[in-house]
Amino acid sequence: MSNNPRDLSRADQVRARRKIEKVQRKPIPRATERTSREARNVSRVVSRHNTYRSTGAYTSSSRSRRQVYLPTGTPGSEVRLPTLPRLSFSWRWVSTAIALGMIVLLYLMLNSSNFAVNTINLSGGIRVPAEEVKASLNVTGESIIRVRPAQVEAQILATFPDIKSAQVEVALPDTLNVVIAERIPAILWLENEEPLLWIDQDGYTFSVRGEANLPIRVYANTTPPLALGYVDPKSVDAEEEVDEEEITALVPPIDPTFVQAVQKLNSIKPADTPMLYDSKNGLGWTDPHSWQVYFGTRTEDIDMKLLEYTYIVDAILDRNLQPVLISMEFLHAPFYRLEH
User: Fold this and answer.
1) What does pTM read for this prediction?
2) CATH level 2 (architecture), domain 184-340
3) Domain 116-182, what architecture?
4) Do 331 and 304 touch, CB atoms closer than 8 A?
5) Exposed/middle/buried for residue 177 (C-beta within 10 Å: 0-12, 13-18, 19+)
């Protein structure tokens, strides 16, 4: 066979060209295959890295243990004890220790006699005996941790109406400091000339004890009029006691306007003339002409009532009349009553 292509037949030339095209058309490897192969290699490297880290953690854990060696009597020989873990303290340990200490301290304060109430210091009282107030509290010997100052204050005010305010403070380890303020009597109420009770400026009543500075004496034939909406604690059932306490805390037994009326009329009445109270006619006094005059229980139009009373007195004297009572309770409807 000739090597010159021109000497080949046409069929041989076609066969030779086909062999050459097969070699030229051989597919070239794609980059994606290489990329996937590199990704697999990378994953292998990462996995080997993780294995190395876990081995390092194990090594650090083994190093955290402390090895202890004890010398023996033989030179150059030692005895190794079992390894001991190294302890590291943090703020969590400190906070836990503080919490446990507080729990222990609270337990001791609740159960130790050193923290039981032993002393009650009372100040501010003048007429109310200190021993009587202390005996009413019933806190002696109780743990000072269990004492609630607000509850003790409420107990004092409920037991002693003549105490206006109370302030209780706890002083460790075993002392209560109590400061009270007593009510100042404004009126001394006498029923049938016997002292019945005191009334302060706000209308609260309390028992007569000790002495007071110049309260106004009111001579009456009955008890003082109660304020509108007031409920007597003695008339309330035990089941309604809580509601009753709320009512009495808002409404005093005596209307404060009644106290103001007593003070106003006391400044108007003749000197050295006792103040009177009648359940039907109200407040008044005995006139120098020997009859009784009453002006009701309020001070509205009191100046007009006094002026009108002056004209009525002149008219009665001109007619030579001797009434036993003159009522000025109603400005436009005054009247007088003669002896029978």
Assistant:
1) 0.65
2) 3-Layer(aba) Sandwich (3.40)
3) Roll (3.10)
4) yes
5) middle
